[in-house]
Specification:
about 0% strand; rod-shaped; single chain; 4 helices; about 250 residues
Length: about 250
């Protein structure tokens, strides 16, 4: 046989074993016995009141156990346990605790244990919520940075594509200009070759002309000498004729 405190404390956790049958039991399957040692009305009323208070306490502990088992510590999940706790506190505050101080003490100790565990879980939940908020914040920051990186990658791709297009255009322009310059260079080389051949031809012509000029100059000098000799002879002949002398110097050899 279990007292209320032991039954409430031992069978609130799942998988608790009965000390008598050694099998797993729950608080709902436990047979609760409340012996009556007299016919006194006040004693029976007090026992009934203790029983009601104990039932309310067990309901609070059961509600707390449900919260602990579910792992949900939100406001909606905690509402039944908090409501039952408030009702129990109000009932105990209105009751006379002189005859049931020991039962209430045991009940409150069990309730305190459960509430401390819930408080510990709530701290974990608050820390978990804080970590989740930080994770969400980091996820948002990561998402923004990822979007920025995507934009930068897109801009870099556009710049690279534009640069490649511009480089290709400039390469084509340079190729066209180089081809044009090559054609012009070939034309200039061809023209220079033609001019060089023409200059060489003109040089030969000039050389021939210089030779001819020298020949004509030599002939002119020779004929000039002959002219002067002839002139001298003519002058001499004319003078001799004037003087009445025959002069054989008029004979031109």
């Amino acid at each position: 046989m279990y007292c209320i405190d032991c039954a409430t404390y031992n069978f609130v956790e799942p998988g608790s074993f009965c000390a008598i049958c050694r099998r797993s039991q729950t608080l709902d399957t436990l047979i609760r016995l409340y012996p009556d040692y007299g016919d006194d009305t006040e004693q029976r009323a007090s026992s009934s009141k203790r029983g009601r208070n104990a039932d309310m306490g067990r309901e609070v502990i059961d509600a707390c156990a449900v919260v602990l088992k579910s792992g949900d510590y939100g406001a909606d999940a905690l509402a039944p346990a908090l409501s039952k706790s408030e009702n129990l506190v109000e009932t105990l505050s209105l009751s006379s605790l002189s005859h049931e101080a020991s039962d209430v003490g045991r009940l409150l100790r069990s309730l305190t244990t459960m509430l401390n565990e819930i408080r510990s879980k709530l701290q974990d939940v608050e820390r978990l919520q804080q970590l989740q908020d930080e994770r969400n914040s980091f996820k948002q920051a990561y998402k923004k940075q990822k979007e920025k990186l995507k934009d930068l990658t897109r801009i870099q791709g556009d710049l690279r594509m534009n640069a490649e297009v511009e480089i290709a255009r400039q390469r084509n322009d340079l190729t066209a200009r180089a081809s044009n310059l090559q054609e012009n260079l070939q034309a200039v080389i061809s023209e220079l070759s033609t001019q060089h051949a023409r200059v060489e031809q003109q040089a030969h012509t000039i050389e021939d002309l210089e030779k001819e000029v020298l020949k004509w100059r030599s002939d002119a000098t020779r004929y000039k000498k002959k002219y002067h000799v002839l002139k001298t002879n003519v002058n001499s002949g004319m003078k001799a004729a004037h003087d009445g002398f025959a002069d054989d110097s008029l004979v031109v050899i």
